[in-house]
Design brief:
Cytochrome Bc1 Complex, Chain D, domain 2, two-stranded antiparallel ribbon, mainly alpha, about 200 residues, about 5% strand, two-stranded parallel sheet
Length: about 200
């Protein structure tokens, strides 16, 4: 076994074997080379986390858009009278829609489904509406409820701001020009229940 010794500066050690007259170095890599390698590994890990895990640094435009979004949400929250135009604008505001989704997922999902697919209550994921097909009309349904059905009034529990946020969340999934008002018996959830309970021939 070859004994280890400290090499003199610029001393070169070669391995004993050779291939086609070529011999290999048999000594430690220089520090500058190792530092470059380790630095590249650290940089690669940092770059991977920043751009692939954290979606990269936000540009000034993204930061500005986020701040304007928050300001719009505060402006919407201060509005005392609502109309369809305002509710549609709310449905295009990320902060407002996000708050509405949180309220929906904490209360409304039990009847209307986590993905708006319906269940006990009507389906809200399509463009077919039974009690109202405008944002303000849907606000009224949530606010006042629908007598004679399982849809109760949420005015006292939620208040106008949270109800408008829920409406904004629902409208964020809709096309303003494609919301259709249909009779109750044609609602997909009702049709599915009727088909399931119909006697088989």
């Amino acid at each position: 076994m070859k004994s280890l010794r400290k090499l003199a500066k610029n001393e070169i050690v070669l391995r004993e074997h050779s291939f086609d007259g070529i011999q290999e170095f048999d000594q430690r890599l220089p520090n500058w080379w190792l530092y470059t390698l380790y630095g590249a590994i650290v940089f690669a890990l940092f770059y991977w986390f920043l751009f692939l895990v954290d979606n990269g640094p936000k540009t000034d435009a993204h930061r500005l858009a986020g701040q304007l979004d928050v300001l719009d949400a505060k402006k919407f929250a201060a509005i005392s009278s609502l109309d369809d135009k305002t509710l549609w604008a709310m449905s295009r505001n990320h902060s407002f829609v996000e708050q509405g989704e949180k309220t929906y997922q904490s209360i409304c999902y039990t009847c209307h489904g986590v993905s708006l697919q319906g269940g006990i209550g009507f389906r809200l994921a399509d463009n077919l509406w039974v009690h109202a097909n405008t944002p303000l009309g849907i606000f009224g349904v949530i606010n006042q409820g629908v007598p004679g059905t399982g849809m109760q009034s949420w005015a006292n529990q939620l208040g106008p701001q949270k109800i408008s946020q829920v409406v904004a969340f629902l409208m964020s999934k809709q096309d303003p020009n494609d919301m259709k008002l249909i009779p109750r018996e044609q609602e997909p959830t009702i049709l599915a229940k009727n088909a399931a309970t119909a006697p088989q021939p």
